[in-house]
Amino acid sequence: MNGAASHETRSQPNGTPKGSAIVRRTNRFDPNFTQHVIDTTGPKTSPRIRKVMASLIQHIHDFARENEVTVDEWMAGVEFINEAGRMSNDVRNEGQLVCDVIGLESLVDEITYKLVSEADSAPTATAILGPFWRADAPRRDMGATIVQNIPDGDHTFIQGIVKDYLTGEPIEGAELDVWHTAPNGLYEQQENQVEHNLRGRFTTGKDGRYSFYCLRPISYPIPDDGPAGKLLKLLDRHPMRPAHIHFIVSAPKYKPIVTQVFDRRDEHLANDSVFAVKDSLIVDFLPREGDPKAQFELAYDFRLATFEDAKKYSLVGPTEEKASQSTVDGNGSRNEQALNMIGAKE
To answer: Which UniProt keywords apply (predicted)?
Structure first.
């Protein structure tokens, strides 16, 4: 070993390097304070909340100590959170967008739905919900268009089958909730488009087939007029998302999937500003022949797992089956349905 090896750092239980300047600085603070805060948790607290909050408090306190956060910096952070809250409503979730640009939603998605098998028959991969889903998208006839008042753009026909990932059998009564941006990169609630433009819900028949017309998606910048945009500028990062279409696919007795499909020809696939791209979700939009209503087409099948089978592939929450049905029925608020759909609500 050379002399430099004697300075090798080792991690303490809280993740800080032993012998580092960080430890020397943080040792100047009350070593018992954080544990005292954690210990004030009452006996009626559920085990899961107790575990999560103890970890959260520990990590936040360690962050403050390690970085010697000042009162002014802390207040700036509080105002950042408050601003995200003020900008959020039923049609825009700025807090979720902030989580997206730091990769948190994509990480939670990976944790929740992490596959334990790489088999081709695995359920369709998931991707983040994003901040612009609406719970009240209209039901449309199979084969109809979700394009309401956009003359521009490349009209596209999408079709496929919703099937059981194990048996390959088609799933009757599966619902597909679909949405994407207009050619100017804006979702309908971001400007004065016809309400529910480029949105729709479709329900499969006995053959499990679905089909609809939409527009070929385009890449676009996420909104930069709020905290998420300010954060990207502070980090010297671009705001672009690769071209994609959002889907929520659900069916009775099956674990819902929240996902996106991405255009293979988009230049931003490798550097999505919200880190949502997965290889298995990259698709090819092909020229469509003999259809005056569409210039492109996409064939894509969705594979769902029953709640029992899904335990092999993901973390299944205790109330997901009930939550799935409430979402299919259109009940509950946007946030409640979104949380239920991704299995994040106890």
So the answer is: Dioxygenase, Iron, Metal-binding, Oxidoreductase
